[in-house]
């Protein structure tokens, strides 16, 4: 990976939330980089810190509830962590767009589709015209764009609204699109269509995409590289096919077997005992140690360091010994 | 011969929507004349997208809402027109496992109280046996009695789902409706709950009606499957046959949407 190809690079991001008895660190070590035109998946279970990591890239978490303890986010030579709110506003929704998890509540019910899309362009002082909006609607596969232009979100189906959301995010031609669980609130029969749409946008516009998901199938269908999170840490990172062919981290290994077992039609589904730790249970140890079948005594003495092995990254003490 | 646990005939539910006193009534056919049978010890899966009427059926089967037309027979008894009082004695036979959300379990009740509640309501065992029964149920769902004094917020999602299951089997229910039993759980925990449901079915001789939008879950759990689309059952048959050789266009679309 050459340095020039990197669109965004996040190093050592740590994020805490405030609660009654002090600060609680929910993201304890997040590193990732995205190359131009690639699709990266952040895969993890609930509470693993994937959404907070992504929103923190754009400093979307509010200052009075959370704090970014450390970290650097370099986007096209700029460190986003050092930018002021008004400078960030020029990047958010313009150079980096974000599709939020609950798409249905993200559209304004009182404004027509055309008006909402034009607003994005106006807000970022970009050239705007009806043609540009119609073109964006065509790109996300809306038929009869002239009619939809004057319609309101409640007149459209869930799947159409999801497309409008995506149109809203790509109309400014961003360099990077972050999509948080873009398919979790829509029906199974629409899921593939939305994923195919993202794939197409990625190819046509050479737009990089970060997709946050807990769903193995979604990651497998879409991504070039994967970032796997567990307990607020990135535990493994690398090209998708290499991770699937030869997972390094014990958690990744277990996850692949778990997800495959139900599909294969095993009579008893292969399971992983226990459950992922909540941020309240985070300690200075490998977060997966309690459920790990190849645990060593040293695993509970400190948080493992990230190791680089042939272009991939893994955070497991077992690889330090080699 | 296997006895029929549940027989549903021409069941419909219409919701009448009226925006104001002056506007015209609008009738929505949430469920439209559906019929199906579930034999004892069988598992029937109901799949379909949101708004197709899956949960409306579950609510009608449990008589949480009244049906508009049609009949429901539970172990040979027509429960469609039963009064709430008369229904109470049948209610312990049919229970539901809800999808785990924070709304399902009262956050101010301990695990012990939560499991004791159905025992008290349905007088399943004598008062002096409550303690032993709670322990027995906890063991059955794979939890230890050390969790008794905890609150739902102190347990993980998977553990709370086990509590919801314990409450459903507490009444010695024979037919259990599972509404999206694993869809809110993490991948590494889903399998644990599915295995538990399979184990309990064998041990207790349960009959399941499983509602899910996840084809692989239905395929794993159910021998028969009903595909719902816009309030109607568009396809009904053995799971293997329906999935390998779908005849309805919607079923085909659903199967084509599986990601490989």
Defining key terms:
heterodimer, A: 322 residues, alpha/beta, Rossmann fold, 2 domains, eight-stranded mixed sheet, four-stranded antiparallel sheet, 10 helices, 31% helix, 25% strand, B: 260 residues, six-stranded mixed sheet, 10 strands, 35% helix, 27% strand, globular
Lay out the secondary structure.
The complex is a heterodimer of chains A (322) and B (260).
Chain A: E1 6-19, E2 22-35, E3 39-43, H1 50-57, E4 66-75, E5 78-79, H2 85-91, E6 96-99, H3 113-123, H4 130-139, H5 145-149, H6 158-170, E7 176-180, H7 188-205, E8 208-213, H8 216-222, E9 225-230, E10 233-239, H9 240-245, H10 250-264, E11 307-309, E12 312-314
Parallel strand pairs in A: 3-8, 3-9, 6-7, 7-8
Antiparallel strand pairs in A: 1-2, 1-4, 4-5, 9-10, 10-12, 11-12
Chain B: E1 4-17, E2 26-39, E3 43-47, H1 54-61, E4 69-74, E5 77-78, H2 84-91, E6 94-97, H3 111-121, H4 130-140, H5 157-169, E7 175-179, H6 187-204, E8 207-212, H7 215-221, E9 224-229, E10 232-238, H8 239-244, H9 249-256
Parallel strand pairs in B: 3-8, 3-9, 6-7, 7-8
Antiparallel strand pairs in B: 1-2, 1-4, 4-5, 9-10
Structure description:
The complex is a heterodimer of chains A (322) and B (260). With 322 residues, chain A is of the alpha/beta class. Helix content of chain A is 31%, strand content 25%. Chain A has ten helices and twelve strands. Chain A has helices at residues 50-57, 85-91, 113-123, 130-139, 145-149, 158-170, 188-205, 216-222, 240-245, 250-264; strands at 6-19, 22-35, 39-43, 66-75, 78-79, 96-99, 176-180, 208-213, 225-230, 233-239, 307-309, 312-314. Chain A is globular. The model of chain A has no long low-confidence stretch (mean pLDDT 90). Chain B is α/β, with parallel strands linked by helices and 260 residues long. In chain B, strands 6-7-8-3-9-10 form a six-stranded mixed sheet, sandwiched between helices. In chain B, α3 (111-121) crosses α4. The longest helix of chain B has 18 residues, at 187-204. Chain B starts with a strand and ends with a helix. Classes of the chains: A alpha/beta (322), B alpha/beta (260).
């Amino acid at each position: 990976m050459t340095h020039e190809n990197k669109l965004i690079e996040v190093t050592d991001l740590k994020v805490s939330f405030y609660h009654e008895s002090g600060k609680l660190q929910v993201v304890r070590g997040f590193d990732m980089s995205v190359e131009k035109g690639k699709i990266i998946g952040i895969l993890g279970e609930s509470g693993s810190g994937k959404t907070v990591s992504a929103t923190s890239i754009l400093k979307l978490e509010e200052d009075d509830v959370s704090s970014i303890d450390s970290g650097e986010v370099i986007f096209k030579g700029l460190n986003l962590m050092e930018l002021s709110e008004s400078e960030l506003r020029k990047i958010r929704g313009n150079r980096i767009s974000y599709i939020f998890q609950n798409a249905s509540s993200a559209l304004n019910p009182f404004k027509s589709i055309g008006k909402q899309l034009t607003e994005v362009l106006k807000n970022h002082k970009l050239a705007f015209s009806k043609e540009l909006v119609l073109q964006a609607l065509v790109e996300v596969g809306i038929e009869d764009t002239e009619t939809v232009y004057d319609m309101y979100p409640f007149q459209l189906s869930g799947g159409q609204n999801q497309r409008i959301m995506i149109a809203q995010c790509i109309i400014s031609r961003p360099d990077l699109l972050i999509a948080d669980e873009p398919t979790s609130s829509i029906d199974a029969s629409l899921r593939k269509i939305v994923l195919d749409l993202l794939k197409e946008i990625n190819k046509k516009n050479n737009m990089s995409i970060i997709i946050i998901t807990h769903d193995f199938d979604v990651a497998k269908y879409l991504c070039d590289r994967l970032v796997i999170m567990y307990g607020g840490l990135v535990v493994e990172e690398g090209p998708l096919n290499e991770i699937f062919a030869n997972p390094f981290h014990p958690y990744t290994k277990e996850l692949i077997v778990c997800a495959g077992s139900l599909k294969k039609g095993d009579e008893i589904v292969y399971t992983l005992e226990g459950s992922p730790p909540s941020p309240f249970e985070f300690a200075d140890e490998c977060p997966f140690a309690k459920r790990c079948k190849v645990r060593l005594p040293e695993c509970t003495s400190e948080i493992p360091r990230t190791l680089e092995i042939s272009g991939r990254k893994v955070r497991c003490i077992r690889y330090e010994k080699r | 011969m296997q006895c029929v646990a549940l027989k549903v005939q021409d069941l419909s539910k219409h919701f009448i929507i009226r925006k104001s006193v002056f506007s015209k009534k609008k009738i929505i056919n949430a469920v439209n004349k559906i019929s199906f049978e579930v034999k004892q010890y069988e598992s029937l899966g109901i799949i379909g997208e949101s708004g197709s009427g899956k949960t409306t059926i579950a609510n009608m089967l449990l008589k949480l809402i009244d049906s508009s037309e049609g009949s429901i027979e539970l172990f040979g008894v027509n429960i469609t027109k039963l009064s709430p009082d008369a229904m109470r004695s049948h209610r312990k036979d049919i229970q539901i496992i809800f999808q785990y959300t924070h709304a399902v379990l009262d956050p101010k009740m301990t695990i012990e109280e939560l499991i004791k509640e159905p025992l008290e309501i349905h007088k399943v065992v004598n008062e002096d046996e409550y303690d032993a029964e709670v322990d027995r149920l906890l063991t059955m769902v794979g939890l230890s009695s050390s969790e008794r004094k905890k609150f739902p917020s102190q347990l993980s999602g998977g553990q709370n789902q086990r509590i919801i299951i314990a409450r459903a089997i507490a009444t010695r229910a024979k037919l259990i409706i599972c509404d999206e039993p694993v869809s809110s759980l993490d991948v590494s925990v889903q399998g644990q709950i599915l295995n538990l449901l399979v184990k309990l079915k064998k041990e207790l001789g349960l009959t399941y009606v499983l509602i899910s939008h996840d084809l692989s879950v239905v395929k794993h759990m159910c021998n028969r499957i009903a595909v719902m689309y816009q309030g109607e059952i568009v396809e009904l048959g053995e799971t293997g046959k329906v999935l390998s050789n779908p005849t309805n266009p919607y079923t085909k679309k659903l199967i084509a949407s599986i990601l490989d």
